[in-house]
Design a protein that fits this description.
Shape: globular
Distance between the termini: 24 Å
Strand content: 25-35%
Largest sheet: 9 strands, mixed
Number of domains: 1
CATH architecture: 3-Layer(aba) Sandwich
Order of helices and strands: EHHHEEHEHEHHEHEEE
Radius of gyration: 18 Å
Number of strands: 9
Helix content: 25-40%
Number of helices: 8
């Protein structure tokens, strides 16, 4: 497929189309409060770190968001156990305090519904790395959300992330794309994203009854959601997998 991949800084007129691009994200994932408060700021404050892909007809078919942050900043050094949430908080804290970033973190690579399976995600990942190199960075990290993990919600992420095929590549398709591109699976971020809400809200997000105490397997969730009928809430703590890439 013919693609034109540019930064949002180069084509700011595509911001609205990027946001409206059809995708397959589960509704509850969009309710992470750190993401809710910070993710929309990326296109405004870091447009040169946002990529958008259009086809030959000018339709937006993929998007990739990333943020710069100071991994070597005070009290840091290691990729955070807080994963996606933490790297967003670090990026905007560094921006506010004027810290010089030394690393780029991917925060989302999404292909439009109906356009998957054509190698677009790998091309967006390569473009994101190229863009980071162009901006002067030597490393890109990614809190990866393994694409097939939702089929085995009960499996520990640490065990799942290390599974490989006979050729040595990861069993998970999205992790496999990263490793084929030269990425190295480093660690699991056990609390990368947290979504909490009343049982009524979870019922609205998922269409499930949420009337049983204990773990509930939810379509699209990488691990079970903890349901407390007695106290009237449910909580989802999603693990992701940190992957490092040299640019």
């Amino acid at each position: 497929m013919e693609l034109e991949i540019t930064t949002l800084a180069e084509r700011p007129e595509l911001a609205e189309a990027m946001g409206a691009m059809p995708d397959t994200w589960p509704a509850f994932v969009l309710e992470d409060l750190v993401g809710w408060a910070n993710f929309p700021r990326i296109t405004v404050e870091f447009p040169e770190y946002v990529l958008v892909a259009t086809d030959s007809e000018g339709t937006v078919v993929a998007r990739a968001y990333s943020v710069p942050f100071a991994l070597g900043g005070p009290g840091r050094g290691a990729l955070p156990e807080g994963g996606w949430d933490q790297v967003l908080l670090w990026a905007f804290s560094d921006l506010r305090h004027g810290r010089t970033p030394d690393t780029v973190s991917a925060t989302e690579i999404t292909v439009a519904t109906g356009r998957q399976g054509r190698g677009i995600s790998g091309r967006m990942l390569a473009a994101l790395r190229d863009n980071a190199r162009r901006l002067g960075f030597q490393e890109v990290v990614a809190p990866v959300r393994p694409s097939a993990k939702h089929r085995e919600a009960a499996a520990p992420m640490e065990e799942y992330a290390r599974r490989t095929r006979e050729d040595g590549l990861p069993v998970d398709p999205w992790l496999r794309v990263h490793v084929r591109a030269g990425g190295v699976v480093e660690s699991v971020a056990p609390a990368s994203m947290t979504v909490t809400g009343s049982l009524a809200r979870w019922r609205a997000w998922t269409g499930l009854p949420f009337d049983t105490e204990g773990p509930v397997e939810v379509p699209g969730a990488l691990v079970p959601v903890h349901c407390s009928v007695r106290h009237g809430y449910a909580a989802y703590v999603e693990p992701n997998v940190w992957v490092r890439h040299r640019t």
